[in-house]
Design brief:
Helix content is about 70%, strand content about 0%. With about 100 residues, the chain is mainly α.
């Protein structure tokens, strides 16, 4: 059943992509990610697909990470956070690393 759910979600993402302008707004992107989180079907492959369809803006990725960090289940969500962090700001992991070196 979960596989059906995943392929359904991929299909829905493609449909959403068709209804939006070329440049997806931060607001729309936040809404898409929020809905995926609500339905518990957000996973790294799905994030990659949404990203390949250009449905995830850096602002929306940051917003989703902030939301996930507040979850009591945060340690289990690290793969999701990692996938989103790659979309948030390409240099963010390096900035953190450089900040660690400064200390």
């Amino acid at each position: 059943a979960s596989l059906d759910g995943a392929s359904n979600t991929r299909f829905i993402l493609k449909c959403i992509r068709c209804t939006l302008p070329n440049l997806v707004s931060d607001e729309d992107s936040v809404t898409i990610l929020s809905k995926l989180m609500e339905t518990n079907c957000l996973n790294p492959p799905l994030i990659q697909q949404a990203a390949s369809l250009q449905l995830i803006t850096p602002v929306a990725a940051e917003h989703a990470i902030t939301h996930l960090q507040q979850s009591p289940d945060y340690s289990n969500l690290l793969p999701l956070v990692g996938a989103l962090a790659a979309l948030a700001h390409p240099l963010a992991p390096y900035k953190r690393y450089i900040n660690c070196l400064r200390i």
